[in-house]
Amino acid sequence: AGDGPAAQSAYVHIPFCRSRCHYCDFPIVPVGSGASPRAVALAERYVEALRREVRAAAAAVPRARGRAAPLRTVSFGGGTPSLLPPAALGLILRELDSAFGIADDAEISLEADPGTFDADKLAAWREYGVSRLSIGVQSFDDELLRAAGRQHDVAGAREALALVRASGMPSWSLDVISGLPQLTQERWETTLRAAVAESPDHVSVYDLQVEEGTAFARWYEDGVSPLPSPGMAADMYRAAAHILRGAGYEHYEVSNFARPGHRSRHNLVYWRNEPFYAFGNGAASYLGGVRYSRPRELEEYFEYVNAVESGARAYGAADDEPAADDVALIDDDDDDQEALCDALMLGLRLADGVDLRALRAQHGAAALAPLQAPLRQLVEDGLAEVYGDTEQGGDERALAAGWDYGEVRRVRLSDPEGFLLSNAA
After folding, report:
1. pTM, whole model, 2 decimals?
2. Contact (CB, 8 A) for 294 and 278
3. Distance CA 351, CA 419 (A)
4. Least confident of 3-17, 97-111, 166-180
């Protein structure tokens, strides 16, 4: 694999959940409340495996040999990381700090579900350095929460959000999902306005994807009633953009809205195609141009950690040895065109758009030449905007009709129509 810049971010997967939601295809382990002896023992075993994987990474990758600065972001996702005892979270953070260092002003974020934390847990998280929460509310409609298989109701969500506001957490996000069965435009707008009324620093708006192997995939067909049609889903997206922007939130990424100063620093690492560590079952890292996914099943993940720790298997991003069959390995350095496509696909998700000048410098003007015609069509259709240098230099300016491709310094998709077509674009 290529060398590339050093990672300054880490994703940590915590697979434990109270139950599997009807739309979920993530690598999770349902454990109820997490308090049973079996669940406690499994969590302890998992946390120890995570710590061992962190140590293995520190021994294997160039970063640990003094090549880079401390971690700037750490994200605990899942699963439901808020089910984990705070002391276990502290053990993982101490291991990361020992291996790589964690910056004093690092963003340490944690996904949490209503009903899985109280004021004491919030206080403990703050003591361990957690500075950002992402609360999985998903809807302010009890019927829709039941239809999605969520374990909380609206009253429980409001109680959890009140605790978060009272905790002094520096930044917190609220997640909602559109496209749920029986969701109408009116019900969706009610959820959006209820979300705004809770005064979060950040709102994530996800459109339901019916994934193979989920309960929803057995019961429903994507885009067919009782799920919203594609046209209805598009109108719901437009409503989210209108209501949240109107409430003072910046629509800085296709699915994300933030008050000034509250963008998700960790997720920006993904969208800017920057390197990051990842630990835990099913977690995918991006180091030295290599995207490396760990086994999804817990027992297979434990075997993977044993093999890496013993030296029987090379750590994923450390060298070019082939990965085992149960570990996906993709090397962007093998295909510069694929790396360019990644940069475009991810960058166009951001309101900041894509710096074409930087991409030309990195990949060569010839590699970007095929973009000219589709870019011009997107602009003519009102789905993209192009910017160039001012005559005096410095700040950029929107380019007028008749612009030349060579003038284009940056391209961004329009909001919301261009964002609606982001994947196709």
Report:
1. 0.92
2. yes
3. 9
4. 3-17
